[in-house]
Amino acid sequence: MLFAVDKNLYKGVRIGNEDVMLSYLQFADDTIFFGEASKENIQVIKCILRTFELASGLKINYGKSQLMGIEVEEDWKKKMAYTLHCKEGELPVKYLGIQIGGNHRKLAMWQPLVNSFKKKLASWKGWDLSMGGRITLINSVLSSLLVFQMSAYLLPKGILYSLDKIRRNFLWGGEGEGKKINWVSWERVCISKEEGGLGVKDLKKFNVALMGKWLSRLANMEEGLWKSVIVGKYGVEGGHWLDWVRDGRNIGSIWWRDV
Q1: Percent of the chain with pLDDT over 90
Q2: pTM over 0.85
């Protein structure tokens, strides 16, 4: 792929005004190609994949491969997917456990996560556990289901409220009918044990802290593709990142505004 880009055989996606060209990303055994919507690019991808098969002796699983497009005609995408012998994909798509390409401020995007969270806690009978056991379970479920998503997106207030309601109900009474009595305010429950609380994580603060790591990485990372993309898209002046509001206009993505 690098050879194809260098020889101008494949045209990737140019980021901002900087000389940042994105043509592919790889994670473990997954590969994502980025490029202009052209027949020439499709042919190059097909040649690269076939060359890989011949050189490695491995086979590409086209049944799990998808072709997606942004502002691309459906007929063209259908023809190119047929050329690559893969499926047509639509955005948003779930990749590595995170929704990509959707508006994460919409509650509908997070409803499957809320349902999964509720189902996980509902599988335990709260009254069969001690208070300490319920707190441990709440935090362990939080760690396994929410940390990855909360590291990537700022959750909407409505989703945070729904998750807190599920956790609060489980803490004070487990599953069952009827209103649960909250013996202590939820704000105090989320205070650390050293300060007189129960040590349950405050989702809003936890979410903000996890999102803050992106600014830390951006400030401390000397180089890297991720930083090059951010700087190329939003720019830097005087050693400071440019705001997402310029001349009274919102120019940044929803994710950048949240960060």
Answers
A1: 23
A2: no
Q: Is residue 97 part of a domain?
A: no
3-state helix, strand, coil in the chain (%, to 5): 50, 10, 35
What SS3 string covers the chain?
Answer: CHHHHHCCCCCCEEECCCCEEECEEEECCEEEECCCCCHHHHHHHHHHHHHHHHHHCCCCCHHHCEECCCCCCHHHHHHHHHHHCCEECCCCEEECCEEECCCCCCHHHHHHHHHHHHHHHHCCCHHHCCHHHHHHHHHHHHHHHCHHHHHHCCCCHHHHHHHHHHHHHHHHHCCCCCCCCCCCCHHHHCCCHHHCCCCCCCHHHHHHHHHHHHHHHHHHCCCCHHHHHHHHHHCEECCEECCCEECCEECCCHHHHHC
The residue range of the domain holding 80 is: 2-90
Same domain, 117 and 199: yes
Co-location of 113 and 73 in the same domain: no
| pLDDT at 220 (0 to 100) | 79
- Domain total for the chain? 3
Residue 110, domain member (yes or no)? yes
What's the confidence (pLDDT) of residue 102? 79
Summarize pLDDT for 85-124 with one digit per residue, the tens: 999 988 888 887 788 887 888 888 888 888 888 887 777 7
Of 90, 123, 142, the domain-final residue: 90
pLDDT tens digits for 12-24?
A: 888 876 678 889 9
